[in-house]
Amino acid sequence: MFKSMQQEVSSRTNRTILGIASLMAFAIWAPTFCVPPMEHILKEELLITHTQAGLLYAIPFLMMVVLGIPGGFLADRIGFRKAAGIGIAIVAVGTILRGTASSYSSLVAFNFIYGVGVGLSFPNLSKLISGWVSREKIGIATGVYSSLMVTGTALALAITMPLIFPITNSFQGVFFFWSIPPIVAAVLWWILVREPPRDNIPDEPVSRSNTSLRRIIQNKHLWLVAILFLLLLFFLDSWSAWAPALMMMKGATENIAGLIVSISLWVGIPTALFIPRFSCKLGLRKPFLWIPAITLALAAWGAIYISIPLSWPFMVLVGVALNAFIPIILALPIEMVSKEEVGTATGLVLSIGNIGAVIGPLVGGRIFDLTGNLHLFLLVLVGISVAATAIAFRIPETGPKGRSRLHGDIL
To answer: Higher-confidence residue: 317 or 123?
Structure first.
């Protein structure tokens, strides 16, 4: 009976931790994705170019690049509850400050503050999950909090212009509105989250820290995952940033454009939930990397010619492809390294990967400024997807059917 009670308490605690991690993922990224639907408003009111608007969107991803690995080290030193808790508090402060911005320079500065919080909090969610969830269920748990992350981005794209902007009547009001989820997440994090049991995260002597870091940096498999993540985030965040503008160029109104693009994220919610389960049942990871990459290459080419009526089902296809790889890639570092190295390994993958999230929107904005359309940029995305396909085939299989071979290669 006592053992049964322990298991019940443990299960309830795990669900609470997973719920908070999911809320954190929602709250961290929703404030970023309210920017693309307002791009034309920000451009007009702040007198900025498409490239500058792209930079505004890309800043949180830039800070992920800068702070991904340092954030992991900070978590190793003070505990990831404190590190991520400080991060989500900074996210809340930064998003509130964005609502007070009256110029482009002040908005950029406040977005950097918000980005610092993103860089400190998001990389530590994987370590939180790995501390409370068994390795066999890592993929499923990652899928759960990834689905809430996608929900936040989809909601921001879908309702910012048709619902939130008419109520607030200013971009500052929109930013204030999207500061509410981070505030709630920060309060609940500090109240409910605890460090996992010590036996779930083995102590690592300080003398072994450099050895561990060197082992991670020399892990060619992790670098392949990081480069693949860079290419796929180049596509994902470029698409999120400029697809609304593409839809408006094809004749959609500003309200309908954001709603159409949000379809690619709404379908990502069940995709992020069920793809990891299907992957675990199949015992394979790689097909859920190279199949989406091929699909995205075809989608980028088709986007040049797609019409508005056909764009709705088209976005469903794009959404499944875009969101299938996210939980798989987030789970790969956890499956490739020991538990005590998860924070640093995840930080490496997120830091390198988010370089693509920074570069993609900027390249798209620059091409938009120079050519007046996005057709050339869509061809760039075709090339990015082809490169991602090639790298996906080179990543070792970490699913149950290929794990023994992976461990043999590492040893």
So the answer is: 317
More confident residue, 246 or 398: 246
How many whole angstroms separate alpha carbon 362 and alpha carbon 194?
A: 39
Backbone angles phi, psi at 355, to 5 degrees: -60, -40
Domain 12-191+218-410 fold:
Growth Hormone; Chain: A; (1.20.1250)
Quote the Cα angle for 94-98-102, to 5°.
145
Measured distance CA(62)–CA(305) in Å, rounded: 32
* pLDDT band at residue 213 under the 50/70/90 scheme: low
Helices 180-192, 2-29: crossing angle, 10 deg rounding: 150
